[in-house]
Amino acid sequence: MSDIRKRDEPVRCALLIVDLQRDFCEGGALAVEGGNDVARRVAVLAAEGDYECVVATRDWHVAPAGHFAEEGVAPDYRETWPVHCVAGTSGASLHPLIDELELDAVFDKGHHRAGYSGFEAVEHHTGETLGDWLARHRIDVVDVAGLATDFCVVATALDAVRLGFATRVLEAAVAGVSPDTTAEALQKMTAAGIDVVPEPVVRGSG
Ligand SMILES: [Zn+2]
C-alpha cells in the first residue's frame, strides 16, 4: 500500500486490540498467563500512541459448534476449549482497563462457530466487517496487540497482511497459551512479512 501512497499523505495507523476480555485474563474461564499485564500495557499504548483509531475484537459465543469441549470431556486447548466468552456474560466483557478506553469500534466474532481471526468479526452495532471498517477509515498500518499470540493474534495478523495492511505485532503487548505454539506463531508471522516489534513503541513521525 505504501508504494502507491502520495508523499504528502500521512500514514494512518490503527491499534487493533484482540480479545482482551475478562475470560482470557487471570481469574477468567480460559486465562492466558500474563493477560492482565498485557491489558495494562495496551491501555498505555492506546492512550499514548499516535493512532488514528483504536478498535477491539471480542470472542463472542452464542452456540459455537464444536468449539467448546463437550461436557465431561477434557478440552485439548488447540481446537476445543473450556466454555468461555459467552455473549453477554461478564466473562465476555472487555478487561476493565480496555473497557474504559475510548474505543472507536468493537467487533464480535465466533457467534456460531470458532472464530480466531478478528477479520471474521463484525461491528457490534452495525454489522460492518473489520476489514471494511479499516478500509473506510483509510488505515495503512495495523498494530496488533492482545490475546492470545498463538491463536487469535496470529490469525488476525495473518489476515491483516493478506488484506494489504502493513502489519506489526507488538511482542510485549501480546501473550500466548503455550510457549511452543507461541514461538511457532511468531515465526509464521515474521515469514509472512509481519513486523514483530519487541517493544510496544509509540509511533514516531517517520
Ligand atoms: Zn472462543
Description:
This protein has helices at residues 35-48, 96-99, 130-136, 149-162, 179-191, and strands at residues 13-18, 53-59, 105-109, 122-123, 141-147, 166-175, 195-197. With 206 residues, the chain is an alpha/beta fold. The protein has a single domain (10-197), classed as Rossmann fold. It has a seven-stranded mixed sheet. The mean pLDDT is 93.
Give the C-level CATH assignment.
Answer: Alpha Beta
- Helical amount among residues, as a percent range? 25-40%
Strand segment count: 7
How many domains make up the 3D coordinates?
1
Q: What does the largest sheet look like?
A: 7 strands, mixed
**Rg over CA atoms:** 16 Å
Total helices: the number is: 5
Can you give me a brief rundown of this structure?
With 206 residues, the protein is an alpha/beta fold. The protein is built from 5 helices and 7 strands.
Structural descriptors:
alpha/beta; binds zinc ion; 5 helices; Rossmann fold; 206 residues; 25% helix; 7-stranded mixed beta sheet
Topology:
Blueprint: E1 13-18, H1 35-48, E2 53-59, H2 96-99, E3 105-109, E4 122-123, H3 130-136, E5 141-147, H4 149-162, E6 166-175, H5 179-191, E7 195-197
Parallel strand pairs: 1-2, 1-5, 2-3, 5-6, 6-7
Antiparallel strand pairs: 3-4
The structure holds zinc ion.
